[in-house]
């Protein structure tokens, strides 16, 4: 078989495989077989065209592979988000808010939020689906801005259930042994009320406990008007409480004279 025939077969194959355009065949036909220079030029052009097509094919395959990988990663992220959403929903359904477990409910939710790395600015949205009764009423009464603030939501609900420092203090002071209780059970509950009172006032040192006891005793020894004034100002140190009481007494002394 002659060289030009072999080249012809090669060109036809490359055209059939869409590697070269059909115009190459037409060009090849018009080239005289004895024109060595022209054949060499044509071979170089063909070789260049083949390399170009091969490069384009490789780039296309690489692009498709990248797109497939990106799509796969996108689907995996979506699946992970869906899995996390289902887990969040399941975990939240395990939480129950009742009259006697409000503190436990919030503590449990906060631990869950930390463990699952929920964004804190989404906590109020996540927790509101568990509100019922009084808690739901309190949440509905909040402004849109406050309802988006978890700490404000928690504070409002704890206040509604009277789970504030003064309520804890009164529970501790007024708690008495029931006839059906053993002294061990009574001691446990008494200690629990005391711990809750201290925790609500963030008492964690001896000095803080000392101030707590002194301020309480000071308030017990003053008249109701001054006591109410002190409660409204929420001072935690004896020196602050004493100054507030003096200011109140002085102001009302002058107002009575006037």
Automatic annotation (TrEMBL):
Which intervals hold domain SCAN box?
A: 165-251
Instruction: List the residue ranges of the region (Disordered).
Output: 52-82
Which superkingdom, per the lineage?
Answer: Eukaryota
**Region forming the signal peptide:** none
Under the heading Pfam families, the entry gives:
SCAN
Q: Which InterPro entries match?
A: SCAN_dom (IPR003309), SCAN_sf (IPR038269)
* Record PANTHER family: RIBONUCLEASE H, ZINC KNUCKLE DOMAINCONTAINING PROTEIN-RELATED
What is the recorded name of this protein? Answer: SCAN box domain-containing protein
Q: What is the lineage of its organism?
A: Eukaryota, Metazoa, Echinodermata, Eleutherozoa, Echinozoa
């Amino acid at each position: 078989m002659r060289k030009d025939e072999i080249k012809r077969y090669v060109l036809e194959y490359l055209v059939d495989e869409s590697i070269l355009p059909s115009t190459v065949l037409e060009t090849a036909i018009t080239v005289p077989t004895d024109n060595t220079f022209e054949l060499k030029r044509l071979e170089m052009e063909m070789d260049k065209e083949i390399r170009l097509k091969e490069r384009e094919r490789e780039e296309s395959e690489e692009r498709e592979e990248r797109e497939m990988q990106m799509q796969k990663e996108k689907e995996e992220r979506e699946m992970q988000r869906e899995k996390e959403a289902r887990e969040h929903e399941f975990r939240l359904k395990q939480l129950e808010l009742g009259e006697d477990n409000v503190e436990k409910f919030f503590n449990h939710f906060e631990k869950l939020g930390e463990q699952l790395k929920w964004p804190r600015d989404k906590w109020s949205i996540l927790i509101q689906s568990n509100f019922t009764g009084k808690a739901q009423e309190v949440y509905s009464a909040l402004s849109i801005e406050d309802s988006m603030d978890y700490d404000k939501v928690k504070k409002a609900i704890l206040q509604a259930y009277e789970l504030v420092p003064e309520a804890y203090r009164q529970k501790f002071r007024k708690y008495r042994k029931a006839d059906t209780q053993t002294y061990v059970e009574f001691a446990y509950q008494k200690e629990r009320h005391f711990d809750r009172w201290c925790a609500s006032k963030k008492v964690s040192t001896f000095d803080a406990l000392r101030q707590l006891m002194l301020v309480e005793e000071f308030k017990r020894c003053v008249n109701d008007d001054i006591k109410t004034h002190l409660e409204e100002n929420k001072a935690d140190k004896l020196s602050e409480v004493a100054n507030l009481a003096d200011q109140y007494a002085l102001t009302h002394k002058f107002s009575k004279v006037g």
